[in-house]
Each structure stands twice: as structure tokens, then as C-alpha cells.
Amino acid sequence: MRYLGDFLLLLGAAFMLLGALGLVRMPDVYNRIQAAAKSATLGAIALMAGLALLQPGWWAKLLLIALFILFTNPVGSSTIARAIHLAGVRPWQATGKEKLEDKS
User: Fold this and answer.
1) Nearest CA to 46 among 23, 61, 62, 22?
2) Is there a contact between 43 and 16 (Cβ–Cβ < 8 Å)?
3) pLDDT tens profile 30-58
4) Which of 32, 36, 56, 80 is least enclosed by beta carbons within 10 angstroms?
């Protein structure tokens, strides 16, 4: 169980790192919200599962926290995206030069 718990902790940390990288690398706010919400949800749940395996006495509290994150993170990110859309922020669109660079 120790190795599985450690693996899940590393997996959760890796997803969090990839989410942070997505915040830096994505071209517009809509892509950044999507990258952050998905990776933060999956990373946090993996961290909670790893902690539950390492500290079996905490599983009930960790389950409640994971369920809270699972339900609130997607709702929060979609609400933020809707507010940004209503504010008039347009999605990023590649120009002709960027489209040509992607194909080669």
C-alpha cells in the first residue's frame, strides 16, 4: 500500500505541475481555464487517494474533500468561463502564419 500511495501522490503532483504548465503555455483564457480545471481536479483527487492509502484513519475526511473538489471545480470553472464570455472576451484564433507553422 505504501508504494501505491506514494505513486498516487506523485501522479497527483505531476498533474498539478502539468496544469501549472498549461496556465503558462495556453494562448487564451478559455484554454487556460480548461487546463487548470481538469488538471487540478484530477491531481487533487489523486493526491487525496494517495493520502487515504498512507493515512487510513483519514479516509472519510479525504473522501468528503475529494467529493467537494469533484463537484465544485468544474462548476466554478464553467461559471468563470461564462462570465468571461459575457464580458466580451473573444477566443484566440491562429493567424495564417501560425497555422502554417503548425502543419510543418
Assistant:
1) 62
2) yes
3) 889 988 899 999 999 999 999 999 999 99
4) 56
Q: Which domain holds residue 59?
A: 2-91
| Block mean pLDDT (10 aa), the chain, length 104 | 94 94 90 90 95 94 94 92 92 68 58
Contacts of 15 (CB under 8 A, 6+ apart): 39, 40, 42, 43, 46
If one counts the domains in the chain, the total is: 1
3-state DSSP percent of the chain in helix, strand and coil, to 5: 85, 0, 15
Q: Which residue has the cell 501560425?
A: 98
| CA 12 – CA 41 distance, rounded (Å) | 9
73 is a domain residue = yes
- Whole-prediction pTM: 0.79
